[in-house]
Structure formats: structure tokens, C-alpha cells
């Protein structure tokens, strides 16, 4: 089996690296800690606009929507280099990876024309209204409701842990439109709609990253629904399969690990115990990388992603945790401001098992859908 990149793929990676070198400011590592902050959000719009003009924001999108019809490998190579640099696209990675492609599959013509071109230009930021108090990764338990009110829907409820909500233009919102488990629908909701309240949740992972969002009699037209009423499960399965492997967080973890080891070498502190721990963390990073590559290869061959996406997601969570543990134990000064990028990774690693579906939920999916293990009788 040949694991080498083709000449074209390596040239594309070099092009992305050159763009990053030319367009990231000298103080980028100090900025990267707050991907949801006002300053980072503003920078990301400028950065993504420049990416779009260089043809590097959405090369994998269809030409119809401003892309280049590039394959899934181009998308993943782009994402790897962005994450290795600390993800300067900020929250716009969601637009690029899954929201835009989801609208291409399920959106009406009017929705596509309204929302996809601004994404392709790098001008807009979205948030996803999934998790709720008491319904984190269990979408079947969500209680936010959208009830028919004449020709419109009236939305009431609450979302929590909503990344980028404080600066987002639009929310990809899940709401219950009936009483059964499957009666869930998706709305494309402008965040400036009357009745929406956003409150930042103080955290150690970066300024402005996560929020509570409240919906009090929010009125929205029926044509804001994505797809049909009750179609959310089908749409979300497709969207999450793109999201969970569209985040090569292992790229940042691997870069941070090598950086931490280099700092130990300079201090002559590379003990056998430290190197053994570093080797295990590196093996986890490589495992996550190769598992993700397997999923990308499936997509390139036209195969629908299956439960392996949950395994790839959990492999990445494991890699991030092992790298974070290594840094905490052997390079603690980095977390006190000694190395901003190591601190960035540590802060993001804290939520590695929560973002894009809790690690425990992923393990349940692996057990039931991949390993087909029987459930214990209650």
C-alpha cells in the first residue's frame, strides 16, 4: 500500500503552507486562544476572504458554488494545515466542512442563493443549535419547540454550549415540531431575530467560545425550514458524518507534541519516562490520522460514511488527551504563558471529548453500530 502523497497533493499542501506563512500576523499565536472572540472573529473574516480570493477556502465545493470540484483529499489537506496552524478560519470551518454542503443537498433554491454565496466569499459565520440542558448529545431528548402559528413557526426553548453564537449571523437550529422521537426539524434562523437572547458562558478555553441561547416566542417564516418537517434526523446524520471527520485536530496535537519534546531536549530533560509517554501520544496522533484518512478514502470512492466516523472521532479525542497530559506533566510552564500555542492546544483539548458529540456517546455508537455488541437487559 502506498501512503505517499501524489505530486499534485503535495503541491497543494505547499500552496496552503505558503499562504499561511504570508497571511498570518506575527502575533497570531497570541490571538489563536480565542476563536470565538470579537478580535478573532473579525480576523477570520479577513483571513477567509483572502483564502476565497486565492481559491483556497472551498476548493472541494462544486464549481456551481464557487469551488473547483476538487476531491475530498484537497478538503482534508486544507483542514490539516489550518488546524496545524491553530485554525485561523475560526468558526467558518463549519461553513466550509458541512453547513454549506448540507444546504447544497437539502436546501431550497432560495435558501441556497441566500446563504451559500456569502459562505463562499468568507463573509459569514454560523452557529449550530443542537445541545440543550439535559440533552447534550442526545438529540432525541431536545425540548426546544417550533409550533405552527399561522403561516409561521413560533420557537421557544434554550440551547447551551453553542460555539460562536455571540458573533454568528445565522443558526443551524434543531427544534421539536411534534411529540414523537422523530418529530424534529431544522430551521435556518437569523441570529438578529427578535426574541433571541445570547449569554456567554465564562470558560478557560478562550474568550467568546461558548454560550447559552434563549428563544422566547421567536417568530420565523415556514420557508426558513431546511428540508421537510420531521426530516432533521436524515439531514443531521449526513451533516455530522462530514463534521466529525472534518476536524483534523490531531494535526495541532502532533505539532504541539513535537514542540513540547523539542523544549525538553533544550532543557536536557528527555527522561526515559517522558519519552515513553511522548511515544504513546505520538502513536495516538498517527492512529487518529490514519483512521481519518480511511474515512476520506471511503468518500473518494463514493462509499457512504458509516459508524467508522465515530471511531475516527474517538481516536482523535484520545490523541488530544494524551498530548495534553504529556504537556501538563512535563512542560507545565507552557500553560502559564511560556508557549501560547501549547496553551491553545491544552485549552481546546479540554473540550475535545465534548465538541461534535460527547466521547461517551461516540463509544456507545461504536459499541452498538460498529462492533454490534448486545445491549445489557435493564
Please provide a written account of the structure.
The chain is an alpha+beta fold and 378 residues long. The chain folds into three domains: 7-124, Orthogonal Bundle (Butyryl-Coa Dehydrogenase, subunit A, domain 1); 128-237, Butyryl-CoA Dehydrogenase, subunit A, domain 2 (Beta Barrel), CATH 2.40.110.10; 244-370, Butyryl-CoA Dehydrogenase, subunit A, domain 3, CATH 1.20.140.10. The chain is built from twelve helices and eight strands. The protein has a four-stranded mixed sheet with strand order 1-4-5-8, covered by helices on one side. α1 (7-23) runs parallel beside α4 (72-84), α10 crosses α11 (340-350) and α10 (308-330) runs antiparallel to α12. It is globular and about 70 Å long. It starts with 6 loop residues before the first helix and ends in an 8-residue tail after the last helix. The relative contact order is 0.10. The mean pLDDT is 86.
Amino acid at each position: 500500500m502506498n501512503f505517499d502523497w501524489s505530486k499534485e497533493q503535495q503541491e497543494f499542501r505547499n500552496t496552503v503552507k505558503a499562504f499561511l506563512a504570508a497571511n498570518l500576523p506575527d502575533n497570531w499565536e497570541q490571538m489563536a486562544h480565542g476563536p470565538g472572540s470579537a478580535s478573532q472573529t473579525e480576523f477570520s473574516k479577513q483571513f477567509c476572504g483572502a483564502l476565497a480570493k486565492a481559491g483556497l477556502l472551498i476548493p472541494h465545493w462544486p464549481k456551481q458554488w464557487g469551488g473547483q470540484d476538487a476531491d475530498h483529499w484537497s478538503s482534508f489537506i486544507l483542514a490539516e494545515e489550518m488546524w496545524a496552524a491553530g485554525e485561523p478560519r475560526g468558526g467558518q470551518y463549519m461553513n466550509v466542512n458541512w453547513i454549506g454542503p448540507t444546504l447544497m443537498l437539502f436546501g431550497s433554491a432560495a435558501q441556497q442563493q441566500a446563504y451559500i454565496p456569502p459562505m463562499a466569499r468568507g463573509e459569514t459565520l454560523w452557529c449550530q443549535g443542537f445541545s440543550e440542558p439535559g440533552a447534550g448529545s442526545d438529540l432525541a431528548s431536545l425540548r426546544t419547540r417550533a409550533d405552527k402559528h399561522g403561516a409561521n413557526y413560533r420557537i421557544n426553548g434554550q440551547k447551551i454550549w453553542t460555539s460562536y453564537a455571540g458573533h454568528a449571523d445565522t443558526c443551524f437550529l434543531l427544534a421539536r415540531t411534534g411529540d414523537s422521537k422523530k418529530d424534529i426539524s431544522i430551521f435556518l434562523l437569523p441570529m438578529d431575530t427578535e426574541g433571541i437572547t445570547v449569554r456567554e458562558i465564562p470558560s478557560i478555553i478562550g474568550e467568546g467560545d461558548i454560550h447559552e441561547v434563549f428563544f422566547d416566542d421567536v417568530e420565523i417564516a415556514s420557508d426558513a425550514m431546511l428540508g421537510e418537517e420531521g426530516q432533521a434526523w436524515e439531514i443531521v446524520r449526513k451533516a455530522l458524518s462530514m463534521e466529525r471527520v472534518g476536524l483534523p485536530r490531531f494535526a495541532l496535537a502532533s505539532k504541539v507534541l513535537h514542540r513540547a519534546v523539542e523544549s525538553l531536549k533544550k532543557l536536557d530533560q528527555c527522561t526515559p519516562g517522558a519519552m515513553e509517554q511522548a511515544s504513546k501520544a505520538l502513536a495516538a496522533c498517527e492512529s487518529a490520522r490514519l483512521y481519518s484518512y480511511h474515512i476520506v478514502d471511503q468518500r473518494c470512492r463514493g462509499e457512504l460514511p458509516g459508524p467508522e466516523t465515530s471511531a475516527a472521532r474517538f481516536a482523535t479525542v484520545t490523541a488530544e488527551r494524551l498530548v495534553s497530559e504529556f504537556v501538563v506533566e512535563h512542560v507545565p510552564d507552557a500553560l502559564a504563558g511560556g508557549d501560547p500555542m501549547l496553551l491553545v492546544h491544552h485549552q481546546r483539548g479540554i473540550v475535545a471529548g465534548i465538541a461534535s458529540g460527547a466521547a461517551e456517546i461516540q463509544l456507545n455508537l461504536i459499541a452498538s453500530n460498529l462492533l454490534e455488541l448486545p445491549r445489557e437487559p435493564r
